[in-house]
Specification:
Distance between the termini: 51 Å
Strand order of the largest sheet: 1-2
Order of helices and strands: EHHEHHHHHEHHHHHEH
Radius of gyration: 22 Å
Strand content: under 5%
Shape: flat
Oligomer: single chain
Number of strands: 4
Helix content: 55-70%
Length: about 400
């Protein structure tokens, strides 16, 4: 029996080629749809489309995790040293025959590799955005009328997507190590926020919007809500990466009690392998209960914060659209979170729960970037432009 190497870089160039080919489609679409727009307008459209595709990638990453496809190909970046599961058919079949219910099956291999293809294409798009931003500082860029662009945000985004790629590799090679899986999910949310900030900046540079002045109290509430949301997302990722969703299958109680038996020390031992403690013993059910219940308890103050924020933002005429998005997405998070518990963790609800968290990060980041501390509203922020209209 041969042991599959964790890293096999032989298919790397083919993987990069696939990603570049996939990235050509959105680039071509933006170029033709906005061919009469300014270079800056095309850049903003491509940023918005990249944001949309990154959101799709986060959703598909959740689907990959929830269908147990994260180890569908046990090496990185390819699949058994091949650029696609087609070339690895014999190895996948052998692994599936040896363990029919194991992590490697033909279907899981395709899910995992599609996720990698999508991630590579998003990386290629971010590389294009960074290159165009730097060109905007050159003499040639000034002739293209994109000289106001500051390249530091796109460069930071490019560096961050490389870090995300490294976490994606470690997710596979470290066999779904809970801390790595959690950081990988949080990294996806940070990537959404970085792209969102750039989209707002490009809209400002093109004169499509001006910052909305809000009072310091509302600004503080906005920052607190975003902080609480990120913390809750981290707790949710910890629940998912430890498969602790079904530790409580009733609501509002857990295991028939308002305070079930929990082991917080073991549950929040950060650096350990999946299913075991740092000492190598199997993790207890009380630890899984603690992981689940802390996420549930944290949901109440975070939802209250988001509700208060939506109400306060609705009082600012220019920010009523973000306030409605926050209210609607908070309701979605509540509904999907409850569905995960009482309906035995349905796949659709679980994927939507991750998507709702990502969408909330985008809306809150957009609102932060589109506003500033002041005493009066100077100009209205346009409605969060639908990607169908912009891209």
């Amino acid at each position: 029996m041969t042991v599959q190497a964790l890293y096999d870089l032989s298919p790397l160039m083919r993987m990069m080629f696939f990603g570049a080919v996939l990235a050509l489609a959105p680039i071509t679409w933006v170029w033709f749809r906005h061919r009469r727009a300014s270079p800056l307008g095309r850049l903003q459209a491509l940023t918005l489309l990249t944001l949309f595709l990154t959101f799709d990638l986060v959703m598909f990453g959740a689907f990959t995790r929830l269908t147990d496809s994260g180890l569908g190909c046990p090496d990185w970046p390819g699949c058994y040293g091949n650029a696609s599961p087609l070339g690895a058919h014999a190895a996948i079949t052998a692994a599936q025959n040896a363990m029919p219910t194991g992590p490697v099956t033909s279907g899981k291999a395709w899910v995992e590799m599609i996720h990698r293809y999508l991630a590579t294409s998003v990386g290629a798009l971010i590389l294009v955005l960074t290159a165009v931003a730097w060109l905007g500082r050159s003499a040639g860029g000034r002739k293209m009328q994109v000289q106001p662009i500051r390249p530091w945000w796109p460069t930071l985004t490019l560096l961050w997507v490389c870090i995300q790629g490294a976490f994606g590799a470690l997710t596979v090679t470290m066999k779904l190590f809970p801390a790595i899986v959690t950081l990988h999910l949080l990294g996806g949310l940070v990537l959404l926020a970085l792209l969102c900030v750039q989209a707002v900046q490009f809209a400002r540079l093109e004169g499509k919007m001006e910052p909305v002045a809000i009072d310091p109290g509302l600004r503080w509430l906005l920052g607190l809500s975003l902080t609480g949301l990120v913390l809750q997302a981290a707790l949710g990722a910890w629940v998912s990466s430890n498969y602790a969703v079904l530790a409580c299958t009733d609501f509002p109680k857990c295991q028939g009690s308002w305070w079930p038996l929990m082991d917080f020390r073991e549950g929040f031992e950060f650096w350990r392998h999946l299913g075991v403690t740092a000492s190598g013993e199997y993790i207890s059910f009380a630890a899984l209960t603690a992981i689940h219940y802390v996420h549930r308890l944290m949901a109440f103050p975070v939802l209250a914060l988001l509700g208060l924020l939506a109400w306060r933002l609705n009082r600012v005429v220019a920010l009523r659209n973000p306030s409605r998005w926050i209210a609607a997405l908070s309701g979605l998070q509540l509904a999907t979170g409850l569905s995960n518990v009482v309906l035995d963790w349905p796949l659709m609800a679980a994927v939507l729960h991750t998507g709702g968290a990502g969408a909330l990060v985008v809306v809150l980041t957009w609102t932060v970037a589109a506003s500033r501390t002041g005493t009066r509203v100077e100009a209205a922020v346009p409605k969060l432009t639908t990607l169908r209209q912009t891209a």
